[in-house]
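Bench log, entry 3. Co-assembly request; chain sequences pasted below exactly as received.
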Amino acid sequence: MATKSDVLDFIRIYADKMVEHRQELTDYDQAIGDGDHGINMSRGFKAVIEKLPAVYEKNIDEILKTVGMTLVSTVGGASGPLYGSAFMKAGAAVKGKDELSNEDIILAFDEAVGGIQFRGKAVEGEKTILDSMIPAIKAIKASIADGKSMAEALVDGEKAAWDGVEYTKTIIATKGRASYLGERSIGHQDPGATSMAYVFQAAKEVAEKVGC
Amino acid sequence: MVGIVVVSHSQKIAEGVVELAKQMSPEASIAAAGGMEDGSIGTDVSKIFAAIKAVDEGDGVVILVDLGSAVMSSEIAIEMLEDSNNVKIVDAPIVEGSLFSSMESSIGSSFEEVIDVLARARVYKKF
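Structure output for the full assembly:
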């Protein structure tokens, strides 16, 4: 379960992570892309933090939608429309709610993946955001089905996400700027998969803090 | 008149393309949506959305893009419109496409005719 204040915490913690890991994400992107992922994500989430007070009183769906709308106009690179679509779809999945059950959280994650796939027209195994996101969500679902708490499931989810990031080192990029490099993209981890792994890390930290 | 929106990661590219197209077709309804709010490199859905609104006279709008997120950001801007039937991203070279389509639209051609011209801009030989 997650309250509205947990959702707001998650957004704040993730925004802090994007500032903290700005250089790291940019370095990964410089190796195989256009070298702006960390700059773009930190710029986008700084704008999100500025917008957040205006929606404190709104329901969770409005908050997530605002995050998405802000990202598509402030990130600048491909991660803007991709993360933006993810947050907008997640918001649409939990319409009118000011509290999320575990089923709601899983539905929001599923819709977010659907949003990214629709927008980016990518599938798993193409060295993208999806390579950490899809395994993470699968792990969360399996853990919840095994009767674990959401906090425990998110520990498993984050681990699966980082395993997914490791996996991106072994594959060729076929989407985005990195695809111009072909086989030379092997050996490098995907910056988008990395920034997505921090989503699950942020969610896990919130869950651990509130003990859900 | 069919409207034209030029989307680039660079504000200067988008504005330069519009400047060039206007020099040949001063009456064309064409708008630049390049870069971010602060002028840095990137594409911005709200800028694209505003540009579509600015050139939409009810006869359709074509969007020319450079690459990558320009396509995805334009798609989101189109989805945000109440009526997106006659708004289309066209896969054509951004400079040639903008010049040809602004000439075509400014002589009063239809949405379909402008799109047809853009298809030809794709295979236009420079020499």
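Chain B touches chain A through 17 residues (CB under 8 Å). Chain B has one domain: 3-123.
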